[in-house]
Specification:
With 262 residues, the chain is of the alpha/beta class. It contains eleven helices and ten strands. It binds 4-(N,N-dimethylamino)cinnamoyl-COA. 4-(N,N-dimethylamino)cinnamoyl-COA binds next to helix 2, helix 3 and strand 6.
């Protein structure tokens, strides 16, 4: 399928969505969100896809936020539609059964930091910049920034970033726990792909189970969260990949995970 606002491609078991509006620093519009939703339909209907990477076209920006030139003219109903579309996208990314890596190759501001946070983890180039600068526009983060950011970095740091609107470097973002790893810009893609391939070789169900346990359990009390883990653990043990992994260990060979249901 052809897309206007993104580039969608697959490389082996890895699917890649590139935000593709480099002249506007890949700012997000409702059409971008619709294109991503269609690409996610493709991802979900292709069981050979084991990992998804999000990145930005060009060398300047991952996503510089929501498209301010469009947003400024939105009616309240259009704003509501945009809001619903963005929140649905974030929850859909978290609900995907495969890992999603944000490969942040430049500015990730406002909606850019927010879509990166809805991924499972973030790798960034050493020249990337993060921030929630909405306060400078007289608004606040509207795509989960006030909610996902404190969960990742703690309340105080999240409040400081949302209240000052300050931009921070990739290294600072790593120090506060927003970013997992920082690479020189010319190595970011190679390193992200290396990790994606490591993940693609793991069992499909155990990857999904880790994602479910951590995302669902995070908002629950410890006892309820451990209950989520118990259920996911039992499902993995009963899955063909679970049997294969343990049998391979006992037979002193590499596991061959098929990701099948029976
Ligand atoms: N929207 C539209 N265009 C943008 C843009 C944006 N967010 N960011 C950059 N551009 C455009 C610029 O206007 C410029 O276009 P031309 O003038 O060439 O036509 C082009 O990209 C290049 O940008 P600059 O010339 O400004 O490049 P610089 O290197 O000088 O500066 C910059 C780069 C990233 C520091 C700067 O462009 C900048 O400050 N951009 C705005 C960053 C920002 O404030 N981001 C937050 C946007 S607000 C919601 C959900 C979510 C949101 C809202 C509502 N609901 C649920 C309802 C999210 C809001 C946001 O993300």
């Amino acid at each position: 399928m052809a897309y206007e606002n993104i580039i969608f491609e697959t490389e082996g078991n890895v699917a890649v969505i590139k935000f593709n509006r480099p002249k506007a620093l890949n700012a997000i519009s409702i059409d971008v969100v619709k294109d991503i939703q269609k690409a996610l339909d493709e991802v979900e209907s292709n069981s050979s896809v084991r990992v998804l990477i999000l990145t930005g076209e060009g060398d300047k920006a991952f996503v510089a936020g929501a498209d301010i030139s469009l947003m400024v003219n939105f009616t309240p109903l259009q704003l509501r539609e945009f809001s619903v579309a963005l929140h649905e996208l974030g929850f859909r990314m978290e609900g995907l059964s495969i890992p999603v890596i944000a490969c942040v190759n430049g500015f990730a501001l406002g909606g850019g930091t927010e879509i990166a946070m809805a991924s499972d983890f973030i790798y960034a180039s050493d020249d990337a910049k993060f921030g929630q600068p909405e306060i400078n526009l007289g608004i606040i983060p509207g795509f989960g920034g006030t909610q996902r950011l404190p969960r990742l970095v703690g309340k105080g740091v999240a409040k400081e970033l949302c209240m000052t609107g300050a931009l921070i470097s990739a290294q600072e973002a790593k120090e506060i726990g927003l970013v997992n790893k920082v690479f020189p810009a010319d190595k970011l893609w190679e390193e992200t792909m290396k990790t994606a391939k490591v993940l693609a070789a793991k069992g499909r169900f155990s990857l999904m189970a880790v994602k479910r346990c951590i995302d669902r359990g995070y908002d629950l009390d410890l006892r309820a969260a451990c209950g989520v883990e118990t259920d996911q653990f039992a499902l993995c043990m009963a899955s063909p990949d679970g049997k294969e992994g343990m049998t391979a260990f006992l037979e002193k060979r590499k596991p061959d995970f098929k990701g099948e249901l029976t």
